[in-house]
Amino acid sequence: MMAEHSDPRDEIVEHLSAMRAFAMSLTRNSALADDMVQDALVKAWSKIDSYQPGTNMRAWLFTILRNTYYSHHRKARREVADVDGEMAAALSQKPDHDGRLQMRDFNRAFEQLKDEQREALILVGAGGFSYEEAAQTCGVAIGTIKSRVNRARKQLVEMLQMSDDEVLEATDVVTTTIVSDNKNVA
Amino acid sequence: MTQDRRNSNLEEAIEANLKRVYEDVANQDVPDRFKDLLNKLRESEQTDQTESDNNDG
Fold it and tell me: Which of A16, B2, B35, B52 is deepest in the core (most CB within 10 A)?
């Protein structure tokens, strides 16, 4: 008797937390993210024949997840109120003088990135995906992923420099004075 | 602080926050609804399988 054929679907459960994290990165809304994970799970279950055992299951699941997002949930994201974002904003944080970037500012900037940039950045910068795995997941060339990641990083720097300057202007008159004095010397 | 220095601090902060956005959710307990859903999908399939086995036999 042959060993019982193992069902790759038994492995799906190991990727649930990563799927929620990726979905949340895309939607920035926890209710939408969880609906999206649910839809993706049902699809993954019925489409398991398209998964090649031994290949990267997380990448395969993320592909289904992002397809779900682009075909159904992207529109919903624009329509629902950004409850999570509003809550985060309501928890006002005092300016941080050690230069540490405030999460609220980061979230605001992150949400302004294009979906395609945000997903590339999160896969590579947080999800531990190689450029190749990210390219495979998003169905584009490796060079496309690289340029999306680079552009996303650059845009975040630009957006956050601006909010950084605003904080400086509002809270740190002394530093501003020193900076302008230095300019006068130069 | 020079502009270069500020930028590299900013880049480090961006990388750290990026990981935080993802890991804050990845480290949460997964709500039961997802494991329940997987169990339901499995059960409904086993029911189908049993029925088709019976039909074959």
Answer: A16
pLDDT in tens, A106-153: 999 999 999 999 999 999 999 999 999 999 999 999 999 999 999 999
User: A153 with A159: CB under 8 angstroms?
Assistant: no
How far apart (Å, rounded) are the C-alpha atoms in residues A160 and A104?
A: 11
As given in the structure block, the two tokens for residue A157 are 């720097």
Chain center to CA of A99: 23
Candidates A20, A108, A159, partner chain B, best to mutate (most B CBs within 10 A): A20
Contact B11 A99 (CB under 8 A): no
End-to-end CA distance of chain B: 80
A140/A84 Cα distance (integer angstroms): 31
Collect all residues with Cβ–Cβ distance below 8 Å to B15 and sequence separation of at least 6. A125
Tell me which of A139 and B50 has the higher pLDDT. A139
pLDDT at position A161 is 86
DSSP run (H or E) holding B11: helix B3-26
Joined tokens for residue A129: 């995906």
Predicted ipTM > 0.90: no
Identify the residue whose tokens are 């309501």. A90
- Distance of alpha carbon A33 from alpha carbon B28, whole angstroms: 14
Q: Which of B13, B22, B24, B1 is nearest to A156 (CA)?
A: B13
